[in-house]
Amino acid sequence: MHSPTPRPDLTLSPPRIDGARLDRRLAALAEIGALEGGGCSRLALTDDDRRGRDLVIAWMRELGLEVTIDRIGNVVGRRSGRDDSLAPVVTGSHIDTVRTGGPYDGNLGVLAGLEVVETLNEAGITTRRPLAVAFFTNEEGARFAPDMMGSAVQQGALDLEVALATVGIDGRSVGDELTRIGYAGDAPCELRAHAFVELHIEQGPVLDREGITIGAVTGVQGISWTEVELRGVSNHAGTTPMSMRRDAGLVAAEIAVALRQIATELGPPQVATVGALTLRPNLVNVVANHARLTLDLRNTDEATLQEAERRAFAAVDELAAREGVTATRRSLARFAPVPYAEQVIAAVEGFAGALGHSVRRLPSGAGHDAQMFAPSCPTGMIFIPSVDGISHNIREFSRPEDIQAGADVLLQTLLQLAEG
Fold first, then answer.
1. How far is 412 from 15, CA to CA, in rounded Å?
2. Is 147 exposed, middle or buried (0-12, 13-18, 19+ CB in 10 A)?
3. Element (H or E) spanning 332, and its range?
4. I want to staple 291 with a disulfide (CB 3.0 to 4.6 A). Which of 7, 197, 230, 255 is the partner?
5. How does strand 359-364 pair with strand 214-220?
6. Torsion over CA of 272, 109, 49 and 74, rounded to 10 degrees?
7. CA quadruple 238, 243, 245, 251: dihedral positive or negative?
8. What pLDDT does residue 9 have?
9. 187 DSSP β-pair partners
10. Which residues of 70-84 are buried (b: 16+ CB within 10 A; e: fewer)?
11. Is residue 289 within 8 Å of residue 232, measured between CB atoms?
12. pLDDT digits (tens, 9 = 90+) for 240-262
């Protein structure tokens, strides 16, 4: 933890965001797909996602932004600068959620961008470069794999036609659902940015536990998602001796334990998770003949991530063979670790200190749309604390004062970048 002395080239501009107004927008968006207990569910390209999109676009237009929608459904609201021939400085995130999501994940980054625009409008400030606020399709990957689909297509990391043909967990395709909800745009899938900055809740416990207000994010962990399918033999649970079973459920359980052991052996920051598991026939008195599970491996170091993959896949093969179960696997998503630009990290760090906030550098353990921009322009992220580290949960909460702090740092960072 440290609060750096502002560098001489960091000049604070007078405007401050209206935290109460930002909170009101967050609450209004959270009402769409609201869940009992305070969360919300807006899976990508569902009717609730459409309603959320409609609301945010209405706000964009009220603020005078020029709105475009591209072929993968990404939405960009552009604010003119003094020189509109220049590439814009872009901020934003996503508004789709997991099935049991909270009101801040993704939404904060989009709505804080709108709050920055409204603050600048009220102050009569026109930046040299245009500013753009964007939200991207299917960041969560909860309905369609892979995650960060819209930003990946837009930045050239995923083929558009492949993305449109992707079939989700309910058997419907991205392309068909974009058309159904009216968000199959006609703009090209490209957004050339001068810089990209994303404000987000941490989704982890570090800032909250250490009592730090702002995280200057250094980069994103590499992510490896793999689906494993196991096929054994169904048999009577009471009459089949343990030594004569080919139990897909047992192998699935052993794989979960093996993944935890791999993460322990490799040490921090390696993490490993079996997050989804289904058995068939899923009956109390029948040995499972089929299991499908996911392996989620993450690390900030590419070589260590590859080693985790090697050990995990070897464990799958060994454990399946021991039980006489066949195992197949397919990659759901694979992203190498992504470092962010030092100039953006330093700006976030410096402005946080200049505004009187505690700040520390830290990596992101989750994937974000920002990482798709990192290869093509200076990119960074601002984290604020998630209370108790909770996210992807209806109890997700960030304090209003932390939201205001993060949005103020975002404002100052965007202003500096937009004058460059």
1. 9
2. buried
3. strand 326-335
4. 230
5. parallel
6. -100
7. positive
8. 63
9. 70
10. bbbbbbbbbbebeee
11. yes
12. 999 999 999 999 999 999 999 99
d(CA 118, CA 100): 30
Between CA 33 and CA 81 the distance in angstroms is 35
Asked whether 130 and 81 are in contact (CB, 8 A), the reply is yes
Q: Are domains 19-220+338-418 and 222-335 of this chain identical in fold?
A: no
CATH number of 19-220+338-418: 3.40.630.10
Spatial distance between the Cα atoms of 157 and 332, rounded to a whole number of angstroms: 14
Compute the half-sphere exposure of residue 321: CA atoms within 13 Å on the CB side of its CA: 6
The fold for domain 222-335 equals: Alpha-Beta Plaits (3.30.70)
Where do the H-state alpha helices sit in 224-341?
Answer: 248-266, 302-323
Q: 290-299 and 277-280: which strand pairing?
A: antiparallel
Triad 415, 220, 193: Cα angle to 5°: 35
In the chain, the percentage of residues whose pLDDT exceeds 70 is: 98
Dihedral class, residue 211 (left if φ above 0, else alpha if ψ from -120 to 50, else beta): left
Domain borders along the chain are 19-220+338-418, 222-335
Q: What is the pLDDT of residues 29-68, one digit of tens each?
A: 999 999 998 899 999 999 999 999 999 999 999 999 999 9
269: cis peptide before it, omega within 30°? yes
Decide the pairing of beta strands 131-135 and 277-280.
Answer: unpaired
Q: Which are the contacts of 169, defined by CB distance < 8 A and separation ≥ 6?
A: 143, 144
In whole angstroms, give the CA distance from residue 419 to residue 81.
Answer: 10
Residue written as tokens 């404002």?
411
Q: Which of 252, 227, 259 is nearest to 333 (CA)?
A: 227
Partners of 279 in the beta sheet?
291
pLDDT in the model for residue 157: 94
CA distance from start to end of the chain: 29
Q: Which of 348, 329, 351 is nearest to 340 (CA)?
A: 348
- How many residues are recorded in the chain? 420
Residues 98 and 46 sit within 8 Å (Cβ to Cβ): no
**Kind plus residue range of the DSSP H or E element containing 133:** strand 131-135
CA dist 381 and 214 (Å) reads: 10
Q: Using N-to-C axis directions, what is the helix angle for 400-418 and 107-123, rounded to 10°?
A: 60
